[in-house]
Write a structure and sequence with these properties.
By secondary structure, this protein is α+β, with helices and mostly antiparallel strands. It has a four-stranded antiparallel sheet with strand order 2-3-1-6, with helices on one face. It has a two-stranded antiparallel ribbon with strand order 4-5. Helix 1 crosses helix 2.
């Protein structure tokens, strides 16, 4: 048995949840925050048999693509403005960060 933890951008979360449940994965969805932009993420926790791990990873990969997004930089407060760039920057967002962990025991009550 394995525990899959996938951190995805909020924008991808509903599509991923639908795809996982359509393939009979039991999923717990948690709101989370972090990353470069301190933006909203969703963390999915999925418990599954070893033989279904690759299927779950394929579904995550198909539904969580990275993309380019324009962001406005935050201006420095009281700091040196010599290196401040006042125009929007294009950065890569999305995708998924996935951890696959072994499960020693599983109980369902």
């Amino acid at each position: 048995m394995k525990l899959i933890m996938a951190v995805v951008q909020d924008q991808d979360s509903n599509r991923l949840l639908k795809a996982l449940t359509e393939h009979n994965f039991r999923v717990t969805k948690l709101a989370s925050t972090g990353g470069f932009l301190k933006s909203g993420n969703t963390t999915f926790i999925i418990g599954t048999e070893d033989i279904r791990v690759q299927k779950a990873l394929d579904i995550i990969k198909a539904n969580c693509q990275s993309r380019q997004q324009l962001v406005a930089p935050v201006s420095p407060i009281g700091g040196n403005t010599d290196s401040y760039v006042p125009y929007p920057l294009e950065i890569e967002v999305g995708g998924a960060t996935v951890f696959v962990l072994p499960v020693e025991q599983f109980h369902q009550f």
